[in-house]
Design goal:
Helix content: over 70%
Order of helices and strands: HHHHHHHHHHHHHHHHHHH
Distance between the termini: 22 Å
Shape: globular
Oligomer: single chain
CATH topology of the largest domain: Growth Hormone, Chain: A
Strand content: under 5%
Number of helices: 19
CATH architecture of the largest domain: Up-down Bundle
Number of domains: 3
Largest sheet: none
Number of strands: 0
Radius of gyration: 23 Å
Structural class: mainly alpha
CATH superfamily of the largest domain: MFS general substrate transporter like domains
Length: 548
C-alpha cells in the first residue's frame, strides 16, 4: 500500500473513533446515570450532568492549538501515537468503573473522560495535518473529503451505537472502541513515519498559559450559564459566569498581544494574513454555530415532543431520534468525497459557498414545519442539510490546510478545530438560552391551561406550571421522562398519571416551536454569513507553500 493511503486509512479510523466517542455518551446518558444510580435531574446533580456531557469538548476546545504547536515542534506522528495510547488506556479504564457507585463513579468517569479528551485532541489535531503532508496538492481535497466523511459519519454512528449498546450494559459504550483503538495504535506505531522537518524554536510558555487559561475560563463560564442561578432559570447572573467571561476574554486579548510581540509565537500571527486561512476559519466557525441548531434543537424536538407524541417512550426516544438523523449522515457521505474531488480540480470557493447556501435553505425549511410534522418532508430536509454540510466541509478544510505553510500545519489545524469546537459550545449555550427564555415566558401558562383541560385540579395545575423550564428541557434532551423525574416523591406524582404522550408534548410544543423558530432563523443567518465568507475567500488557492 502506498504510504499516503496508509495515512488516510489510519487517520480515518482515528477520526471515526474520536467522533463516535463525542456523541455516544450523549445518547447514553440515561443508561450511564441509571448504571451509576444517579438521578441527573436531582438537586445539585445538573453540574455533574453537564461535566459528563461537555467535559470532553471543553478539553478539546482549549488545548488543540497548544497540541498543534507541540506537534510541529516534536513530531506529528509521535504525538499522534501518544494520542492513540492515551485514548485506548482511558477507554479501558472507563469500561471498568463500578456500577451503582453514585457520584464517586460519576467523578471518576468525568476525570477519565477529561484525560481521554487529551488523547482525542492529539488525534484530531494531527489527522488532517498528516493527510496534508502525505498527499500531493492535487489529491488533498479528495483525501480530506474522505476524512471529513469519517468524522461526520462517526457523530451520527455514535448516537446509534450508544442507543444499541446501552440497552445491554452502559460499560459497552466505552469498551466498544478498545479493539479499534488498539489496532490503530499498533498500526500507527509500525507504519507511520515523520515526513516533515521539526521546528527548532523555544516554547512560547506565556502564550500557552494565557491561551489555555482564557479558553478554559470562557468554556466553563459558557457551560455554567446552563445551570440555574438563584431565582434565575439560567446562570448568566452568576458571579462565576460573569467573572469567567471577563477574565477569560482579558486573557485571550493578552494572548493576542503576546503572540504579536513574541519572537517564536505559539500561534504565528502571519497565518491570519492568509485570506484563505482567515476567511475559511470564519466560514467554518459560523457554520459550526449554525449546525448546532440541527444537532441540539432537532434532537430535543424529536425526543421531547414528536416521538412521545407518537407513542415512543422517553427511554427509547434517544435511539429512535438517532435513526431519524441518518439522512444527515447519508447526505454528508454522498457529497463530501465528491466535493473534495471537485475541489482538487476547480478550487474550494464554488462548492463551499454552494454548500452553505444549501444548508441555509434547509434551516429555513425546518423553521416552516409544524411540531407534528410530516416525517417524509422532515427526512428530506435533513438530507438536504447533510448535502449542504458535506459539500462545505471538505472544500473549506482543503482551502485552509493548503494555505498553511508546511511548518505550521498541525498548529493551523489546531486553530481550525478549536474554533469549530468553540462554535459548537457557543451554539449550544445560545440555542438553549433562547429556548429557556421562551419557556420561562410562555411555558407556565401553557402547562397550567393544558393541565386544567386534562381534568386536573387548579392546585395540581399550578404545581405543574412551576416546574423548572431548564429541567424540562434537559430531561427531554437526555431522554428522561420529565414529569416522572421532577415529580418523583411529591404528592402530585400519584395524581399525575395522565399519559405523558398526550399531556407533556402538547404542553411543550407551543413554547418550543416559538423558540425553535427564533433559533433556526439566527442559525440560518450564521450559515448565510458563512456562505458570504466562503465566496469572498477568492479563487482557486494552490499556494507554493501547499506544494512543498
Amino acid at each position: 500500500m502506498q504510504y499516503k493511503w496508509t495515512v488516510l486509512t489510519n487517520t480515518t479510523l482515528s477520526g471515526l473513533m474520536s467522533s463516535i466517542n463525542m456523541t455516544i455518551v450523549l445518547i447514553s446518558l440515561p443508561a450511564i446515570f441509571r448504571g451509576l444510580s444517579i438521578n441527573p435531574l436531582a438537586p445539585g446533580e445538573i453540574a455533574v450532568l453537564l461535566w459528563v456531557l461537555m467535559g470532553y469538548s471543553i478539553v478539546t476546545a482549549t488545548l488543540l492549538v497548544t497540541f498543534g504547536r507541540l506537534s510541529d515542534m516534536y513530531g506529528r506522528v509521535k504525538l499522534y501515537i501518544y494520542g492513540f495510547l492515551i485514548f485506548t488506556a482511558c477507554s479501558i479504564l472507563l469500561s471498568v468503573i463500578p456500577s451503582n457507585s453514585g457520584n464517586s463513579g460519576a467523578f471518576a468517569l468525568i476525570g477519565i473522560r477529561l484525560v481521554q479528551a487529551v488523547g482525542g485532541g492529539l488525534l484530531m489535531v494531527n489527522g488532517a495535518a498528516l493527510i496534508t503532508d502525505a498527499f500531493p496538492v492535487e489529491e488533498r481535497g479528495k483525501a480530506l473529503g474522505i476524512n471529513q466523511v469519517s468524522f461526520i459519519t462517526g457523530s451520527v454512528l455514535g448516537l446509534i451505537l450508544g442507543g444499541l449498546l446501552s440497552i445491554y450494559d452502559w460499560h459497552m459504550i466505552f469498551l466498544f472502541s478498545v479493539p479499534f483503538a488498539v489496532a490503530g495504535t499498533v498500526w500507527a506505531m509500525f507504519k507511520l513515519k515523520e515526513t516533515s522537518a521539526l521546528i527548532k524554536v523555544k516554547m512560547d510558555y506565556w502564550g500557552n498559559i494565557t491561551l489555555v487559561l482564557g479558553l478554559v475560563l470562557l468554556s466553563l463560564a459558557l457551560t455554567y450559564t446552563l445551570i440555574p442561578y438563584s431565582a434565575n432559570p439560567m446562570g448568566w447572573k452568576s458571579p462565576f459566569v460573569i467573572s469567567g467571561l471577563i477574565i477569560g476574554t482579558a486573557l485571550i486579548l493578552i494572548f493576542a498581544y503576546i503572540e504579536i510581540k513574541a519572537k517564536a509565537p505559539m500561534l504565528a500571527p502571519h497565518l491570519f494574513k492568509l485570506k484563505a486561512f482567515l476567511f475559511g476559519n470564519l466560514a467554518a466557525t459560523l457554520a459550526s454555530l449554525g449546525r448546532g441548531a440541527v444537532m441540539f434543537l432537532v434532537v430535543i424536538w424529536l425526543q421531547g415532543i414528536y416521538l412521545p407524541l407518537h407513542g415512543i417512550s422517553y427511554a427509547n426516544a434517544p435511539f429512535i431520534a438517532a435513526l431519524y438523523m441518518i439522512p444527515i449522515m447519508a447526505g454528508t457521505v454522498l457529497l463530501a468525497p465528491v466535493s473534495g474531488f471537485l475541489t482538487d480540480r476547480y478550487g474550494a470557493r464554488p462548492f463551499a459557498t454552494a454548500g452553505m447556501i444549501i444548508f441555509t435553505i434547509s434551516l429555513l425549511l425546518l423553521a416552516m414545519l409544524n411540531y407534528n410534522f410530516n416525517p417524509l418532508f422532515f427526512e428530506i430536509i435533513l438530507f438536504i442539510s447533510g448535502i449542504g454540510s458535506g459539500m462545505f466541509a471538505s472544500p473549506n478544510t482543503t482551502a485552509i490546510m493548503d494555505s498553511v505553510p508546511k511548518s505550521d500545519r498541525a498548529s493551523g489545524n489546531g486553530v481550525r478545530i478549536t474554533l469549530q469546537n468553540i462554535g459548537q459550545t457557543i451554539s449550544m449555550v445560545l440555542f438553549f438560552t433562547i429556548l429557556i427564555t421562551i419557556f420561562t415566558i410562555y411555558l407556565p401558562g401553557s402547562m397550567y391551561s393544558r393541565a386544567v383541560s386534562a381534568g386536573l385540579s387548579q392546585n395540581i395545575a399550578m404545581q405543574l406550571s412551576k416546574l423548572s423550564p431548564s429541567g424540562l428541557l434537559f430531561a427531554s434532551f437526555i431522554g428522561v421522562d420529565p414529569l416522572a423525574s421532577m415529580l418523583n416523591g411529591s404528592t402530585t406524582s400519584s395524581t399525575v398519571h395522565i399519559s405523558t404522550a398526550s399531556f407533556l408534548p402538547y404542553a411543550l410544543a407551543p413554547s418550543f416551536m416559538k423558540g425553535m423558530a427564533y433559533a433556526l432563523y439566527i442559525a440560518a443567518a450564521m450559515a448565510a454569513a458563512s456562505a458570504i465568507f466562503s465566496a469572498l475567500r477568492g479563487g482557486k488557492y494552490i499556494l507554493e507553500a501547499a506544494r512543498e
